[in-house]
Every structure is written in structure tokens, then in C-alpha cells.
Design brief:
345 residues; alpha+beta; 9 helices
């Protein structure tokens, strides 16, 4: 692939004795949408602030299009950052909020007016141009903040948990709109989130972080289907960990895992294969049902199994029913013994 658009090299950041980032290296390509994903305190927002130039690092470098910008001030990096809290000026209208950055850049009034009109149309908010933030809904305020960022035509758009303060329906609509704008404008975007659904649906590439390290980076499909550690497997989606799956042909301390949707259910044993269980709980999850099954004659206590409404009704499944289930070998993910402890982290 061509030279990275943005290149982070061995970045470390400490706050006193606390090491927030430990020699982080990451390449971002032009027009790519990258999500930094991980639990609270993993270092993802710290990394975003370092990219933005809002904090200084203890070690490492940042290059943009081959030019070192490690010590370039935030205001001169030509990046735009959008915060979870919107950070709109309450005493300014939507249009004035968007115009503010352009006025600081000494744009002429005519160009500012045209640009404000253009980005308001982009985010479908032309009708709120003269409204103040308090007169707008949370979703509208977030769109105004996005329009303000887009007005600067940034080289990179940085998003710090931009949707976490919104309710589920608005959040889902906005993540679709942000991704649509990213593609339409040919932007390069880096977004911080702790929400796996946001990362899976929005990103070209997900970077999973924990305790100041990058654990895995890859496409959403790769991260979901081929997690490289129990932590990643557990953090992305739902995973069953099976301490012993096939002892006769496996290393003693390996950890095995399988997604709930890959476990196969039946009322009776097929071809001598299958395990016996008892249904402890059935949860309605909208497009599927999640069963908690008590495993019989196994070291693991319960296993989660996702089934379609059609299968649930076809097998007439109810709580306390005995059931047979099979773990298809091609769906089993294996982790080496050195990773075993991460299952319980």
C-alpha cells in the first residue's frame, strides 16, 4: 500500500507514574475511517488528543504525509475535533457557531456565508441556522458540531465518543449519516468509541486497545471472526469460552471459544455428535432469541446459544427443556495457553 497518510511511531504518554500509552505505532491511510475501540481508561482518548496536538507525548513522533508534525501546535495541524459534549457556544446561533472557526481564519464574509450554508445543507440542518443550541435537540446539536468541524475542510476529522450522549435511535441514525458524509467528502476520520456496534458498523478498520496497548487492528469482519486474543474475542460481540473442547487432540492448556450464533441446536443427538444441556433462560433480542443452556457432563457451566424465532418455535423450546447442541469444529477459535489468563480479565 502507499505511504501512510498519518503515521504514529512508538508513542508513549505518562501522567506521573501512570503509563497511559506504551509505544503505540499505527498507520492511517487517506480516506480511511478508523475506530479506536476499547474500555474506559485504555488510552484511546489520550491517543486522539495527542494526534490532535492537545497534549504532548513523552516519546514518539507523528508524521502527516511524510512531514513531522510532532511539535506542531494544534491550531496549525489542520485537523478538526468533535467532542462528546458538542462544545457549542450557547450564546451563538447554529450558523454563528459554524462560522466562528472560519472567522478566526480570516475568511471574508461572503465565503463564510456560503460555507455555512453548504455544511448546514450537508447535515440537513438549514432550517435551524438561526436557532440557538438550547433550542435544538441533542441530535441537532451534534450535527451542528459536525458541520462546524466539516466547515474547516480538515485534513483529518477526529471524533471523541461523538454519539455516546444520544439515545439509541438518534445514535443509530447519526452513525449512518457520519459514515455517509465521510464517504461523500472523501475524508480521513479517526473516531474513539467504547461501543462495539459503532465500530463494527462505521469503521474500515478497528483498532482494539487495552491498558495503553494496541491488541489487534483489522477490518470489522476480521476482528469479529478472527480475534487474536481472548480479550478481543470477549470485547467484540459475545463469546463462549470452552475450557475443554477436544482434549484428545489439543494442547492441555489451550482455550477454545465459539460465538453463540454458531452453536447448533437439535432435539436429539445426530450421528453420535452433540452435548446435552438444559435451557435455563430464553431472552428475546429482537431478531433472535438468546438461550442460556446449562451444560451437562462438562467443565463449563453454561453456554449461550443464539437462535432465530423460526428455530425456537419449530423446536418448541421452553425454559427447563432438555436440549442437544453441537459445537462445529470449523467454528471453534483456539487461543494458546499463554493467553488463558486473559479470559478472566
Amino acid at each position: 500500500m502507499n505511504q501512510p497518510y498519518l503515521e504514529l511511531q512508538a508513542i508513549s504518554k505518562s501522567y506521573g507514574s501512570f503509563l497511559a500509552l506504551d509505544r503505540i505505532s499505527l498507520n492511517v491511510h487517506q480516506n480511511e475511517f478508523v475506530c479506536l475501540l476499547g474500555p474506559s481508561g485504555c488510552g484511546k482518548s489520550t491517543l486522539l488528543r495527542l494526534i490532535a496536538g492537545l497534549d504532548s507525548m513523552n516519546q514518539g513522533s507523528i508524521q502527516l504525509m511524510g512531514n513531522d508534525i510532532t511539535h506542531v501546535a494544534a491550531g496549525k495541524r489542520d485537523f478538526a475535533m468533535m467532542f462528546q459534549s458538542y462544545a457549542l457556544f450557547p450564546n451563538m446561533t447554529a450558523a454563528q457557531n459554524i462560522a466562528y472557526g472560519l472567522e478566526n481564519k480570516k475568511w471574508n464574509k461572503h465565503d463564510i456565508k456560503e460555507k455555512v450554508k453548504e455544511v448546514l445543507e450537508l447535515v440537513n440542518l438549514s432550517h435551524v441556522a438561526d436557532k440557538y443550541p438550547a433550542q435544538c435537540s441533542g441530535g441537532q446539536q451534534q450535527r451542528i458540531a459536525l458541520a462546524r468541524a466539516l466547515a474547516m475542510s480538515p485534513k483529518i476529522l477526529l471524533l471523541d465518543e461523538p454519539l455516546s450522549a444520544l439515545d439509541a435511535n438518534v445514535r443509530e441514525k447519526l452513525r449512518y449519516e457520519i459514515r455517509l458524509l465521510h464517504d461523500k467528502l472523501g475524508m480521513t476520520t479517526i473516531m474513539v468509541t467504547h461501543d462495539q456496534d459503532e465500530a463494527l458498523t462505521m469503521a474500515d478498520r478497528i483498532v482494539v486497545m487495552n491498558e495503553g496497548h494496541i491488541l489487534q487492528a483489522g477490518s470489522p469482519q476480521d476482528i469479529y471472526e478472527q480475534p487474536q486474543s481472548p480479550f478481543v474475542a470477549h470485547f467484540i460481540g459475545t463469546m463462549n469460552f470452552i475450557p475443554k473442547w477436544s482434549p484428545e487432540s489439543s494442547a492441555e492448556n489451550n482455550v477454545y471459544a465459539i460465538r453463540p450464533e454458531h452453536v447448533q441446536l437439535s432435539r436429539e443427538r445426530k450421528g453420535g455428535l452433540g452435548e446435552t444441556g438444559k435451557i435455563e433462560n430464553i431472552e428475546f433480542r429482537g431478531s433472535f432469541y438468546r438461550l442460556t443452556v446449562r451444560a451437562m457432563n462438562q467443565e463449563y457451566e453454561t453456554i449461550l446459544i443464539d437462535v432465530s424465532p423460526q428455530i425456537l418455535h419449530q423446536l418448541e423450546l421452553k425454559r427447563s427443556d432438555p436440549i442437544m447442541y453441537t459445537l462445529p469444529s470449523e467454528r471453534i477459535i483456539t487461543f494458546g495457553q499463554q493467553l488463558r489468563s486473559a479470559v478472566n480479565s
